[in-house]
Amino acid sequence: MNNLKLSQYISEADIQKKVKELGATLSQKFKGKDVVAICVLKGSFVFYSDLVRAINCDISCEFFGVASYHGGTKSSGEVKVTLDLQNPIEDKHVILVEDIVDTGITMNYLKNALISRKPKSLTTVALLEKPDALKVPCEIDHSGFKIPNDFVVGYGLDYQGYYRNLPYIAQVQNFN
Ligand code: IMP
Asked: How much is the pLDDT for 66?
């Protein structure tokens, strides 16, 4: 894994600035409200932990595990739930926090799965979007950066389980 060549794509400083902006927007939107923020595991755990600390309102945390890549660089097109929410979200304001929208299949699956549980509102947030990779229409309420259709790692995003701990987002130059 160590011989993969990475090039920095989005710096730590730029990510942190964007997270603060998103946090300020969501703090304003949910001022005085009680919200449930859902972390989509595993990819969004780093973004999520920074984002919830940038949101200033009453917030409870839930975790939803899904897998669609199964380790490689292409979506399998099939979403598998690996961990369900611990508590009901019926009648709650919900913020769904994703790392990246690639084909849009996972985000659409998540939206439908959550809407069927009847939240009071559902707000979707994704740090990254790859508009050229979309295979199904997918609207995001708040997104951080739009990027080209390249595979990226870091800040929670992995390649074969590694690189999630990089504090910045990088492009992989050479795959083995
Ligand atoms: P989608 O269903 O194709 O939109 O893919 C969503 C999931 O695939 C994301 O939540 C990520 O976990 C993963 N993914 C998509 N693009 C990348 C990437 O460039 N690097 C790492 N993981 C990715």
From this structure: 94
Structure tokens at 91: 């009648």
H or E segment to which residue 117 belongs: none
Please give the structure tokens belonging to residue 14: 């730029």
* Ligand 1 mean position, distance from CA 24 (Å): 26
Q: Which residues pair with 95 in a beta bridge?
A: 37, 123
Amino acid (one-letter) located at 160: Q
pLDDT in tens, 52-75: 999 999 999 999 999 886 556 677
pTM comes to: 0.94
Verify whether residue 102 is a known catalytic residue: yes
Average pLDDT estimate for 21-31: 98
Which pLDDT tens digit goes with each residue over 148-158?
999 999 999 99
> Which amino acid, residue 19?
V
* Ligand 1: nearest atom to the Cα of 158: 21
Contact status, residue 58 vs residue 35, Cβ threshold 8 Å: yes
Query: Which residues form ligand 1's pocket by a CB distance below 6 Å?
Result: 43, 68-69, 75, 98-107, 151-153, 157
List of domains in the chain: 12-147 (3.40.50.2020)
Which ligand 1 atom minimizes the distance to the CA of 159?
Answer: 21
